[in-house]
Every structure is written in C-alpha cells, then in structure tokens.
Amino acid sequence: MRRFTSSRAGGERSDDATSPVSVLPGDAAAMHSASSARGDTRPRRLATKIDQLTKEYVLKSETVRALRGVSFDVPEGDYVAIMGPSGSGKSTLLNLLGCLDKPTKGRLLLGDDDIGSMSDDELAEIRSRRIGFVFQSYNLIQQLTVVENIQVPLYYQGRMDAQQRQRSVDLAVRVGLGDRLDHRPAQLSGGQQQRVAIARSLVNDPYFILADEATGNLDSVTTEEILSLFDVLHEEGRTIIMVTHEDEVAARARRVVRLRDGMLHSDSLNDEARRQAVRQSQRQAAEAVSKNHGDT
Length: 296
Prior knowledge:
alpha/beta
C-alpha cells in the first residue's frame, strides 16, 4: 500500500489573491487556543465564514427551505467533515461553498469576499482560482494525460507557461504519480485517478480543498491511501472541507459538522487521541487486506 509523507510545513499561500479576513469569531477560537498552547498567539485567519446561511428553492408553488440559518467558521488549516442524512442540506451547502449557487439570505465569505454580492463571472473566477475541487467520480478529461489534467485550471486562466507545467509535474510526483505522467485516465486505477484530482485541486494553491465523497468509489485499501494523503495535506496547513456519509472517513477530520433538516445540528471536535487511534487502526486494516490480496 502506498504511503505518503509530508514534504513541507506551514501552509502559506503563494498567490497574490486577497488574504483571508483576520478575525476570530465562533469556532475559530478553538483553533486559536490550540495554536496558543503551542506558543503561536497569532489569530487564525478564516478560509470561509458561514453566517446565518439560508437557501430557498421554489418548486412549482411550494417554497423549499434547504438551509435554515446555518452558521459556522472554517479557519485556515482546519479539516472539517460535513455530514447529514438525505435532505439535511449538505448538498446545498456544498454547492454554495463551491460558488455554484448563491444564498437566499445570510452571508458566505471566502476570505473577505461575500459570494452573495458577486456576478456569475466573478463566481466563475473564484471557482477557478480559489477553490480546489475533488469529486467522487474524479471528473478527469479522458483524452488528457495526468499532467495535462492537473493543468486544466491553469488553462482556463491562461497560465500555461513552463513554470506552471513544472508545478503540475511536481504535484503529480507529490501524490505518487511520478511514473504515470503521460498516462491517460483509462490507464489508471480509481485511486490513481483520485490522486490526479487531488493534485489538480492543489495547482492553484486554493483557499481550501472541497471534497465531495472523495472516497465513495474506492475500496478500503485505496480509501486509506487517499485519506492518508488528506492527512498529510492537513498537517502541512491545507484547509480541507469534506462532505461524507461515512463515519469512518469523518473520524479522520479535526471537526465534524452535522446538518439536519437544513439546520446546524452539531459542530464538534474529534478527540485527537481517538483520531490517531482511528488512523492507525484503519491503516493496519488496509495493510492486512493488501497483504492478503498479495498472498492469493
């Protein structure tokens, strides 16, 4: 089974986008307390702030309130799993976080920009530059190679120079695909395709990675590889927001936000010792499965 190791510390953004707002309300205080305990007293900036978010849809003559005043913050460097049963509003929240829709009421800030006041063109710009998407079905372009798929966000921005190509190659190597640079999706396993998608999500150095059931199509061994990669990215300071229905996946996150009936049901921290125990247990289970497959 492939293992991943951290290659850098911190998580400082290298682009020239506006820095996220430096405030510390609500849930951000918990991360600030943790950083203070380590001797770091700087406030945690927010990757996104969700404030009394409401989304309504009109279906025929009926108004459906998919979200009903949801509020929580995601500081930079956080790792949040969003969970909820069918009809809880998590898909609607995912669409809003991905700038695919705008709220009916309330505010959703990416950095210090309110998406509710943006035009469609501005939302498209945000999607291409400041959010890294990872989808359950990978969403790779079948005619393109690994490196070319990673470069797709850069293509839409007109940033296809030699330096950016090298960055794409480096990211492919970073996720364990250095020997697959010229392969096309049909020549890759599901786990390899998802690693391409993760590398693509990082190419713009986004405010956060938005993962939608990223392990939903994968077996247990490959799921562990992808979750290990997310663990490493979080340790490096990346912000990860993951929608999942699997408790085993959510147990790897630092926080679990649960929605129910369009409202915030709970927002809790995973115990760090339990997180480490779950990580170790899942890794050992995946290694056992991998070994058994190798013996048969």
